[in-house]
Target: MFS transporter
Amino acid sequence: MSGTNAAGVRTPSPWQRLSAASGGTNRWVVLAVLCVSLVLVALDATILHVAVPSVTEDLRPGSIELLWIVDAYPLVCASLLILFGTLGDRVGRRRILLLGYGLFGAASAIAALADNAQVLIAARALLGIGGAMIMPATLSILRQVFPDRRERALAIGIWTAVAAIGAASGPVLGGFLVQHFWWGSVFLINIPLMALILPLGRWLLPESRGSADGPWDVLGALMAAAGVLGTVLGIKRLGAERRLLDAEALLPLLVGLVLLVLFVRRQRRREQPLIDMRMFSRAAFSTSVACIVLAMLALVGLELIAVQYLQLVLHLSPLETGLRLLPLTFAAMAAGATGSYTLGRVGPRTMVSLGFVLTAFAVLLLTLMGQQDRPLLLTIGFILLGFGLQTTLFAAYESMLSEAPAATVGGAASIGETSYQLGAGMGIALLGSVMNAAYRPGLMGVPGVSAADSAGAANSLGEAYQIAAHLGGPAGASLYAAARQSFVHGLHVTLLVSAVLLFAGAVMALKLPRTMDCGAAEEEAAEVRLPAQAKGEARPTPVEQAG
Model:
């Protein structure tokens, strides 16, 4: 919003003059805008979950197509975060962010009007591209605007609480829309939100860039994207086919792993790498990244299965399902809001470990769920699950950003967001595969049901209900009962696998620092100010640099 006078000199915008007058205190307003951006992305990651049964009934996707409808968004987003994160370092993070808003809105319209599974998958992939353009900027700008670790911890606490608000709003809002309109309306909600944030972001957000030394490694960015997609695609197909020697699963998995290894080697050799791999030699950084992956793996995979349980086993409406999930997300909001205080008192190691243990305990408690509704048990389990996971995510994010040098914050933000989205996608793939593997055997050999109908019922619980209704009579009743029982059994197996992973995360978190060291952050902030002060110059705030 800056103007230009007759001599071609840019005049400061009102926002830039306000920033200069307030001594940079508008970093909190910048944080507010970044949090709205996060709501946009977090909302879309969860709002579709309660609409899955309606999508299944309307579009009749296969089991693989249904998985892709849900996780095409997080997987495509994860694969492109490094590409767009580093591109934003070169051409401007705000510029990429605003382009992401536009693409997100257009893709939402396509998804809402999709009339088959293929179009919906493609639209979800476009949403993933838009999300990949949006997400790296939020953390990198946050790290830049808040150099002091104590303030940054508070900002990250607010940031993670807002993410929980987006997650909380998604199921409830999605349930309301599906119940009163149609499943496509869950995507239309993105459009007014984007229409609000796009002009606000253009006027309020500071433009920022990272180091532009050397050429941008386009080949490396494409290798990383293809490597992530190939690896997760292979895992998805292994889970769906349940054959370790299946060529369609092994080929993308091996190609993806090879590309990731080549990407790492390429980055280590380059003078100006996309990602400074030396960060992973720091135990605190690498451990934080691994904890983010594990926490998101548990959260998203369990949430998707929980939604199916609430709707298809307990027969709750989409709106009732969203309301049942509110305790989980409100507990997550509380954990984010109090995270800064807790981190300062107990330190990263204890906070992450206890978060994992609390989550594992909640998961084990939820194994008491059966075919009958137990509201109190579900509420207690979801509260413990939300608080434990958000505690882990907050402390892991804060440790990761604080461990990364200021000069490589863009790469660190891309790694953090890639871990977040990759963990979400792999949670759906891995836990969904465990669920399918435990669910399918119970549908074989049901009296009066043909092999073909049994195979169809084994694809999903929703499809089993449809086949049972079509069969009718004793055979239909037997298939219906067997499908419900098998789903609950698969849910219990999946919860036990999740608990094992969470306990492993608690042990892994012991590598994190015992205390929250704020001295290094203060020295870093001083170093950022010293060069300008040494020249007798006033160092501009990030917002002033936007001009």
